């Protein structure tokens, strides 16, 4: 069975995309899925996810232990089957990095996979309070479940 490779992408790779990575790793445990996350910007390369996001995720049973990396077009476009952006800006940045437009079919928006929540994009909780981190995790739990069904059906 082929391993499906998924990359979650946000701006800095310290809140939303590592949270998506943690949620999906738990949901897909035991399945042939490889999951990573990255940021379109390199502000936080090598750092653990934001302490607030780790704390809120831990309360829900997710351990966020990846270190921030920047999206590398020459490596990541080829390496991953699904490249999932957290919001429209991230998706637009990824599309712009695909100079020859050969990887557009791999790109999607996280909330395209939402099953029950009616939201467009995953909001950045970085400058807000605790409720923002909880809201992000609720969106990600819903959308990661939908993404897993999509991947499972392929």
Offer a quick outline of the entry:
The chain is α/β, with parallel strands linked by helices. The chain has helices at residues 16-27, 51-59, 73-79, 88-97, 130-153, and strands at residues 4-10, 33-39, 82-85, 107-109.
Q: How does this structure look, described?
A:
- With 154 residues, this protein is α/β, with parallel strands linked by helices.
- The protein has one domain (4-153): Response regulator (Rossmann fold, 3-Layer(aba) Sandwich), CATH 3.40.50.2300.
- The chain has five helices and four strands; from the N terminus they run βαβααβαβα.
- The protein has helices at 16-27, 51-59, 73-79, 88-97, 130-153, and strands at residues 4-10, 33-39, 82-85, 107-109.
- The protein has a four-stranded parallel β-sheet with strand order 2-1-3-4, with helices on both faces.
- Helix 4 links the parallel strand 3 and strand 4.
- Helix 1 (16-27) crosses helix 5 (130-153) and helix 2 packs across helix 5.
- The protein starts with a strand and ends with a helix.
Secondary structure: elements and pairs:
Layout lengths: L3 E7 L5 H12 L5 E7 L11 H9 L13 H7 L2 E4 L2 H10 L9 E3 L20 H24 L1
Parallel strand pairs: 1-2, 1-3, 3-4
Q: Main beta sheet, described? A: 4 strands, parallel
The H-level CATH homologous superfamily, spelled out, is Response regulator
| Spatial order of the strands forming the largest sheet | 2-1-3-4
CATH topology, by name, is Rossmann fold
Percent strand equals 5-15%
Looking at the overall shape, the CATH architecture is 3-Layer(aba) Sandwich
- Residue windows where pLDDT falls under 50 for at least 5 positions: none
Could you tell me how far the N terminus lies from the C terminus, measured between alpha carbons in angstroms?
11 Å
Number of domains: 1
Order of helices and strands: EHEHHEHEH
Helix content: 40-55%
Tell me the Rg in angstroms.
14 Å
What's the mean pLDDT score? Answer: 97
What structural class do you assign from the helix and strand content?
Answer: alpha/beta
| Number of helical elements | 5
Q: Based on CA inertia axes, which overall geometry fits?
A: globular
Name of the CATH first level: Alpha Beta
Number of strands: 4
């Amino acid at each position: 069975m082929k391993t499906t490779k998924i990359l979650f992408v946000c701006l800095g790779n310290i809140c939303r995309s590592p949270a998506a990575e943690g949620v999906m790793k738990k949901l897909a445990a035991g399945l042939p899925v490889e999951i990573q996350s990255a940021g379109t910007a390199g502000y936080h390369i090598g750092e653990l996810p934001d302490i607030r996001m780790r704390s809120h995720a831990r309360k829900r049973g997710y351990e966020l232990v990846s270190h921030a990396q920047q999206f590398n077009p020459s490596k990541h476009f080829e390496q991953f089957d699904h490249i999932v952006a957290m919001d429209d800006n991230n998706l637009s940045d990824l599309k712009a990095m695909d100079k020859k437009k050969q990887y557009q079919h791999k790109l999607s928006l996280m909330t395209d996979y939402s099953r029950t929540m009616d939201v467009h994009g995953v909001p950045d909780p970085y400058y807000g309070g605790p409720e923002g981190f909880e809201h992000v995790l609720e969106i990600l739990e819903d959308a990661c479940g939908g993404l897993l069904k999509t991947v499972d059906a392929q």
